[in-house]
Amino acid sequence: MAATALGRRGPAVPSSSRGGRRRANLRALLYLSPWLAGFAIFFVYPLLSTVYFSFQRYDMFTLEPVGLLNYRYLLHDDAAWTALRNTLWLVVVMVPLRVLFGLGVAQLITKVKAGAGVLRTIFYLPSLVPLVAGTLGFVYLLNPGTGPVQAVLDAVGLPSPDWFGDPAWSKWGLTILGLWSVGDLMVIFLAALLDVPRQLYEAAAIDGANAWHQFTRITLPIIRPVLMFATVTGVIQTLQYFTQAMVAARVASGATDSAGSVFVPGYPDQSTLTFPEWLFHQGFRDYAMGYACVLALVLFAISMVFTLILLRQFRGFAEEEA
Amino acid sequence: MTTTLASRPVAAGPAAPARGTRGRTALLWIARHAIAVALSVMFLGPLGFIVLTALMSDQQALTSELWPRSWNWGNFAEIFETAPLLTWIRNTLLYSVLATAFMLVSSIPVAYALAKFRFRGRKLAFLLVITTMMLPPQVVAVPVYLIWARFHLTGTLWPLILPMLLGDAFSIFLLRQFLVTIPREYSDAARVDGCGEFRTLVRVILPMARPAIAAVALFQFFYCWNDYYGPLLYAGTDLDNWTLSIGLAAFRSVHRVQWNLTMAATVLATAPVIVVFFFAQKVFIEGVKLTGVK
C-alpha cells in the first residue's frame, strides 16, 4: 500500500506527513479550544485592560484619564507599603517554617513504624479544614480569655500574648495557623522521602555514618528539588495570602456590621494587612479601580518573577514525558 | 508511585549504627513516639476544641474551660434559626457541583491534548497553563469583575461558575501530569483497533485516569466549598446569595452571636469535608502527590 501511494503521489512521505501535521495541529486546536478561549477572555484581555485602567480614574461610573497619577499615588500610599511589607514578612517567615516543619513531620513518620499510616492521616487532616473555619477556630483557640493556649503557656511560665489582638504577634498567630495546615506539604515530602533508595542508607551505615550524616549527605541532596519546588510554589501562594488574614482580623476586631459601614482589613493596626487585601479593598470597597489596577500590576510583577524562577528551575515540570 | 506506607518497608529506618547501644536505640524510640503523640495532640486538639465549644452554653463559651458543663446539642438547631444556613448550603452546593461538572467537561480534553498530542506550540501552551495557574487571581480581578458587571451577573455566584466551562488551569495541570504517565501503547493499540481519537479518550484513557479525575473533581469541589475570596467579591450584600464560607466569616458580626454558635457553624462547614476525606483518603493523598515535582 505504501508503494502504491508512493507511485501515485510522488514524494509521499513529506507531503502526507505535512498534511498529517496540519490535521494534528487542527485536532489539538479543537481539544484546546475551551482553554484558549478562557485564556483570552479571562487572562490576556483583563491583563491588557488592567494596564489601560491603571492610567484612568474609574469608579464604575465615570472614567477619566489621569496619566501617571495612580502610580504617583502609590509612592505616597503608606498602607500599600505596609501591606507589601506584611506580605513579604509572611513569605520570608511562614514559607520556610512551613517547609521545615512539613519536612520534620514527614521525616518523623518515616521513623515511626507502628501507626505511620494513622499519623499521616492525622497530620494531613487539618489541611482539609476550610480556611474560614480553621481561622475562626484559631482566633478563638489563641484568644487569651477563651482558649486553652494561654493556660498551657502560663503553666510552663511563658508569656501569653493576645495573639490576634496585638500587632507584634498577629502575624505569628497566622503563622501558627499555617503550620497547623502543613499537611499537603507533608504528603509530598513523605512521598519523596520514601522514594530515596534504601540501599544508600545501608551502605552509609556500614561506612559508619550516623543518622545526621545520613540525613544531610543522602536524604537532603536527593529530595532537594522537591523542597525547592515546595518553597517556590509556597512563595507564589503566599503572595496571594488573603482569606486567613481577612477572617482573623474581622473576627478578632469584634467589628459588628452596621448599615453602610465597610470593614477595613488589617486589624490590629494594619499588622495583618496583606497586599491582595489592600488591592481588594481599594478596588471593590472604595471603588478606586484605576488605583487597584496599579496595585494589581505590582502583584503581577512580583509573582511573575517567582513563576519564571519556577519554570527555569524545574524544566522537568514541562518535559515531554514525565 | 502508588506504593502505600503499609506495603513498603520504611526507607529511612535506622540502620543500627555500629556505635549505637541498645539503650540509646530504646531512648530514640521513646523520643520519637513521644514527639509523634505530642504532635498528634497538637494537630487534632484544635478540631476537638472547636467541637467541644460548639456544644457549650453561651456563658461557658466565654470562659477558657475545655469540657462542656452541659451538652447543648440544641446549638446546632439554633444556628439554623439564627442565619439562613440552608440557603447558604444550597448556594454553596450549587456553586461546588456546577463548577466541578463544568471543569471536568472542559479540562479533560485540554489535559489530554497537552499530554498526548504532538502539535506546534504544545510546550508553550503548557507553560501558559502553568503561568495562569501560578498567577494570583487578584491580578486580573478588576477587568474580570467589569466583564460580569456588564452582563449584570455581579451579585450572583455565576461569575465563579461559568468560567469553569472554559477550563481550569490547576485541574488541567494535574490531569496532564497523570495522563503523561499512561504509556502511549494503550492509545496506539486502540487506534490500531480502529478507534477514533475521541473514542480512544473516552473508552481507553478515561477509565485508566479515573484516580486522577476523582482527585481533581474532589479538589475542585472542596476549593469551591471553601472558597472565600470568590464569593466575597461576587455574591454581594444580599444574604440570600451568600455561601457558607462568607456567611461563616460574618456570622459573629452580622448575627451578633456567641462563640458557641459560631463554632457550631464551623463544625457544620467542616464536617462534610472530613467525612468525604475518610471515604476517599487514597484519592486525596495520590492527588496531592501529583502536585509535587518528580
Automatic annotation (TrEMBL), chain A:
Membrane topology: Multi-pass membrane protein
Keywords: Cell membrane, Membrane, Transmembrane, Transmembrane helix, Transport
CDD domains assigned to the protein according to its UniProt record, in alphabetical order: TM_PBP2
GO cellular component, one term: plasma membrane
Entry-linked SUPFAM superfamilies: MalF N-terminal region-like, MetI-like
Domain ABC transmembrane type-1: 84-310
Transmembrane segments: 28-55, 88-110, 122-142, 172-194, 222-242, 288-311
Record's keyword annotation contains Transport: yes
Subcellular location: Cell membrane
Pfam families: BPD_transp_1 (PF00528)
GO biological process: transmembrane transport
Superkingdom, natural source: Bacteria
Database matches in Gene3D superfamilies: MetI-like (1.10.3720.10)
Family per record: Belongs to the binding-protein-dependent transport system permease family.
Annotated protein name in UniProt: Sugar ABC transporter permease
Originating species: Microbispora oryzae
TrEMBL record, chain B:
UniProt keyword Protease present: no
Domain ABC transmembrane type-1: 89-280
Protein name, entry field: Carbohydrate ABC transporter permease
Gene Ontology CC: one annotated term: plasma membrane
Keywords, ordered alphabetically: Cell membrane, Membrane, Transmembrane, Transmembrane helix, Transport
Pfam entry (one): BPD_transp_1
A Gene Ontology BP annotation from the UniProt entry: transmembrane transport
Membrane topology label: Multi-pass membrane protein
Subcellular localization, as worded in the UniProt entry: Cell membrane
Protein family membership: Belongs to the binding-protein-dependent transport system permease family.
TM ranges: 34-56, 93-114, 126-148, 160-179, 200-223, 261-280
Keyword Cell cycle applies: no
